């Protein structure tokens, strides 16, 4: 065999790898962009190496071609998946410090949702009052219109009676009358009729003015109702945005991490309660519940296990102030709907003087409330994703205590 034939066979061997050599994972040169000069240069280098006839060097050349192809064409899609990362490149474990940061972030999101929930509930309460006022005004308008129609009928009848009198002057009536006394009696009745007509017309005018005022008041209430509707819509968007962000954050955690997060939350609550109790405050709390307070506590504790739902007042779910307001309503005493209104409007008492049934208001913005049940504990509806439960009264920052029944002795 000639030397040229040997060279042709070597080139054929370089171009056509044998079955099983594992070279098919790299795309042929002609599949790459023609402008990839780096790839062409490496292919040329690979060709030179292949002509040496060494199989190990062939593998090296092909590997270099593939590596340069990946680097030179970052957007290119390949049919063969990338090799899995080595076991040593594992994702670092989430530390307690990381989870503590998540816990604080979640607390902030849920507190923001609680503030927005109070805004929604307050707008809802105003809407109820405004709707009731509109109904009341509508009834007054209906009654006033009926009165106005009656007055108009009577005024028309009086005018017709005067018209039938002919409009003659009194002297003519005296001359035409056979009996002067009859004339005088008739004149008296005419004066009474004129006086009554003037009174009727005055009442008609006042009724008309009242109707106009009722209509103006109803229009003002409608405007407030519409403003309240928009306020509720804004508050609802805030609530949903905060809850969605919190749920998204929790969803990023693995199951084991969520369990650790729950343990961190419980530990933080226990530590806060222990700090509160270490002040000796529980030794000074000796108040006893009133009869109404006992009923309110019984109602609230009977809801334990039911889910939190913003804006809910039962019976299937509650938010924090929905639970406390409904508990006291069941005891026969109405209180404001929101935790902020409860803080503003109910009588405040010292923590040392609180008794079962009193409401413990939390955080500086009064965005959360629980009901004191005794033994340093409250029953409350915590937040979305949680259920009505018993917690330490000092497990959250206490703003103050309010009493729904200050006029009742224990």
From TrEMBL:
SUPFAM superfamilies: Cysteine proteinases. Residues 7-21 have a biased composition (Basic and acidic residues). Residues 290-410 form the NlpC/P60 domain. Pfam families: NLPC_P60. The chain crosses the membrane at residues 57-79. Residues 106-154, 232-274 form a coiled coil. It comes from the Bacteria. Residues 1-28 are annotated as: Disordered. Belongs to the peptidase C40 family. This is C40 family peptidase. It comes from Streptomyces prasinosporus.
